[in-house]
């Protein structure tokens, strides 16, 4: 659990009106207490890290990831067969994906657009810098895998291109 998730949990508990919430997981214990409406006391958060031996931590962390990737695999098996003939263009950076250079301009590419090597496909904003993402292949856009103005991770698939 990272700091953003903890902050979100604190905000959720504060809005819900609960006076106390306890959350215990394998390696962390969190208690969030909010003052009652009449007392005026400030919100109190206690985060306690429980020490876990190194050998036990690695398998515990890897097991849920393996289960998450194994569950959707059968449903994606059909997609990978159909998509195997296409080239996937992936995000080279973390940031916010934009299909247009600005809100009042048309999108760089649409499904069915023919592209050449070096054509700008989208823009990814990272730390207030807008980075043009250029195609490294020529072909035709088959599918746009990310919604406009949504966050993307490094190496996340953005487009499927038919190179033929």
From TrEMBL:
Domain of life the protein comes from: Bacteria
Keywords: Biotin, Fatty acid biosynthesis, Fatty acid metabolism, Lipid biosynthesis, Lipid metabolism
Residue ranges, compositional bias (Low complexity): 51-74
Gene3D superfamilies: 2.40.50.100
Record has Plastid as a keyword: no
Domain Lipoyl-binding intervals: 86-162
InterPro entries: AcCoA_biotinCC, Biotin_BS, Biotin_Carboxyl_Carrier/Decarb, Biotin_lipoyl, Single_hybrid_motif
GO CC list: acetyl-CoA carboxylase complex
GO MF terms held by the record: acetyl-CoA carboxylase activity
Region Disordered, annotated ranges: 51-84
A Pfam family this chain is assigned to: Biotin_lipoyl
CDD domains: biotinyl_domain
Pathway membership, UniProt: Lipid metabolism; fatty acid biosynthesis
GO BP, sorted A to Z: fatty acid biosynthetic process
Annotated function: This protein is a component of the acetyl coenzyme A carboxylase complex; first, biotin carboxylase catalyzes the carboxylation of the carrier protein and then the transcarboxylase transfers the carboxyl group to form malonyl-CoA.
Protein name: Biotin carboxyl carrier protein of acetyl-CoA carboxylase
Organism, scientific name: Flagellimonas chongwuensis
């Amino acid at each position: 659990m990272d700091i953003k998730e903890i902050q979100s949990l604190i905000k959720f508990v504060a809005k819900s009106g609960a006076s106390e919430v306890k959350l215990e997981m394998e390696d962390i214990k969190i208690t969030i207490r909010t003052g009652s409406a009449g007392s005026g006391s400030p919100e109190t958060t206690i985060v306690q890290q429980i020490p876990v031996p190194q050998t036990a931590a690695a398998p515990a962390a890897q097991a849920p990831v393996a289960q998450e990737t194994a569950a959707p695999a059968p449903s994606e098996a059909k997609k990978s067969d159909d998509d195997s003939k296409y080239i996937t263009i992936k995000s080279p950076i973390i940031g916010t994906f934009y299909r247009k250079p600005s809100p009042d301009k048309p999108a760089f590419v649409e499904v069915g657009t023919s592209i050449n090597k070096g054509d700008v496909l989208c823009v990814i904003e990272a730390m207030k810098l807008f980075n043009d993402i250029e195609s490294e292949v020529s072909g035709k856009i088959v599918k746009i895998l990310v919604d406009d103005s949504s966050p993307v991770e490094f190496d996340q698939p953005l487009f499927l291109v038919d190179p033929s």
